[in-house]
Amino acid sequence: MAHDTRIPGCELCEQDGGILLARTDKLRVIRAVDADHPAFYRVIWNDHVAEWTDLVPADRSHLMQTVAKVETVLREALKPTKINLASLGNMVPHLHWHVIARYDWDARWPAPIWAGKQREVVDAEARLAVPLSQLDQAVAAAVLASAS
């Protein structure tokens, strides 16, 4: 089960993992810097655990409620074609969820974001319905509202 641990050499134990938007005692939400997929967020468990089932049921629920809050903000603010959710951890075995707004115009659509590009998209960020700064504020507010 979850412990207050940090593992030397683990990328997500040693750094935020992107642009930090919100941090609570249990988790943090960041925005990944990805020019092709600008609305790419991660919900990262603070303690080093590799698998979702390493968490006690209450923490699992808390983590997934946070993922749902991020998804809800992205859907409401951006009206994307699809939201991608993923928790792979093959390269970084530290529990985290990807929450990514996808569009039928994005560089890899309909393939996964790690597939080869299907097309070049110039300034994907400018195509979003709201500026990233506004989106980041809305994501942070949604996450922190339940933490207080």
Supply database-style keywords.
five-stranded antiparallel β-sheet; alpha+beta; globular; 148 residues; HIT family, subunit A; single chain
Brief write-up:
This protein is an alpha+beta fold and 148 residues long. It contains three helices and five strands. It has one domain (11-147): HIT family, subunit A, CATH 3.30.428.10.
Outline the structure in words:
There is one protein chain. This protein has helices spanning 11-14, 57-78, 132-147; strands at residues 19-23, 27-31, 40-45, 82-86, 96-102. By secondary structure, the chain is an alpha+beta fold. The protein has a single domain (11-147), classed as HIT family, subunit A, CATH 3.30.428.10. Helix 2 (57-78) packs antiparallel against helix 3. It starts with 10 loop residues before the first helix and ends with a helix.
Kindly provide the radius of gyration, computed on alpha-carbon positions and rounded to a whole number of angstroms.
15 Å
Helix count equals 3
This entry's quaternary arrangement is single chain
**In CATH, what is the homologous superfamily?**
HIT-like
Q: State the low-pLDDT regions, or none.
A: none
Q: Write the element-wise H/E pattern from the N-terminal end onward.
A: HEEEHEEH
Helix coverage percent of residues?
A: 25-40%
**How are the strands of the largest sheet arranged?**
1-2-3-5-4
CATH architecture: 2-Layer Sandwich
What's the rounded overall pLDDT mean? 93
Global morphology:
globular
Q: What fraction strand?
A: 15-25%
